[in-house]
Amino acid sequence: MPIPVRFSSVGPSEDPRYDHVALPKRALIAFTSAHAPLYEDNKETGMFVAEALHPYNVFTAEGFDVDFVSETGTYGPDWLSQQDEWLKGEDKAAWEGKTGDFRKKLDGMAKAGDVDPDKYGIFFASAGHASLIDYPTARQLQRLASKVYSDGGIVSAVCHGGAIFPGVVNPVTNHSIVVGKRITGFTTKGEEEQGVLQTIRRWDRMTVEEAAAKAGGEYVGPPGPWDSFTRTDGRVVTGANLASARDTAVAAVKAFDELENNRDEKTGSER
């Protein structure tokens, strides 16, 4: 029996074994489970609130069902991300309002080993410096991202979320899904400006730029460390920093829609 094909207009597929079944209109946002002292008075890094909240808002506004997941089913918020300079107005209300949809999903997030990747058309790695600690060895999160990608879906990451890429393997090539792709993420210059590069070295972890190189990708930096900047290369969508969180999710939705529109053209169906 011939193997059906899912076609992509956002870049050539490494694996022709896709079928004509529509991708699930469901996004899985991944979170770091790690936390560690990073700021003054040993205040801790963890998940950066707005780097998950902004993508969540985009996906829900575009009609996606959204679920949250971390390697252990737990999370800790980054201290800096809760300060007024970084979390204001409706964002702050969404974080502090524990009965709202965002916070309820956050506090009830799943453990990665318990999640079925076949339910999702987008995998989105949110961030925070703590992502550098656990994403490189988060085998279950990597499994989820790899399966979403091998099924023809979109894999996306913002800021430090790209630390996951060396372990997200394309089963067809047995190499990272970003091999030969142009990707972005938080700059090493930005780590230096924040004064945290030496802490990252003490963690024995790579910067996002270094992780991109290890994974075989081509790192492309933003004009400045804090400028909004995204890259879409095939079915991999990346953003550089907090300012890019919303735009990265928008780009991921665009890539998803292009896949589905192209599938409809090939099958003669209408959405």
Structure description:
This is D-lactate dehydratase. Its EC number is 4.2.1.130. It comes from Lithohypha guttulata. The structure is a single chain. The protein has a single domain, classed as Rossmann fold, CATH 3.40.50.880. It has nine helices and 13 strands. With 271 residues, it is of the alpha/beta class. A hairpin with a 2-residue loop joins strand 12 (230-233) and strand 13 (236-239).
Please give a quick description of this structure.
By secondary structure, the protein is of the alpha/beta class. It contains nine helices and 13 strands.
Tell how many strands the DSSP assignment holds: 13
| C-alpha geometry | globular
Give the C-level CATH assignment: Alpha Beta
Question: Which ranges are low-confidence, i.e. pLDDT below 50, for 5 or more consecutive residues?
Answer: 1-19
First-residue to last-residue Cα separation: 27 Å
Helix vs. strand class: alpha/beta
Rg from Cα: 18 Å
- Biggest β-sheet strands, sense, barrel: 7 strands, mixed
Percentage of residues in helical conformation: 25-40%
CATH architecture: 3-Layer(aba) Sandwich
Query: In CATH terms, what is the fold-level topology?
Result: Rossmann fold
- The residue-averaged pLDDT reads 91
Tally of structural domains? 1
Question: What is the name of the CATH superfamily?
Answer: Class I glutamine amidotransferase (GATase) domain
**Sequence of secondary-structure elements:** EEEHEHHEEHHEEEEHHHEEEH
Widest beta sheet: strand line-up:
5-4-1-6-7-13-12
Strand fraction band? 15-25%
In DSSP terms (H or I, runs of 4 or more residues), the helix count works out at 9
Protein name: D-lactate dehydratase
Catalytic activity: methylglyoxal + H2O = (R)-lactate + H(+)
EC number: 4.2.1.130
GO molecular function: glyoxalase III activity
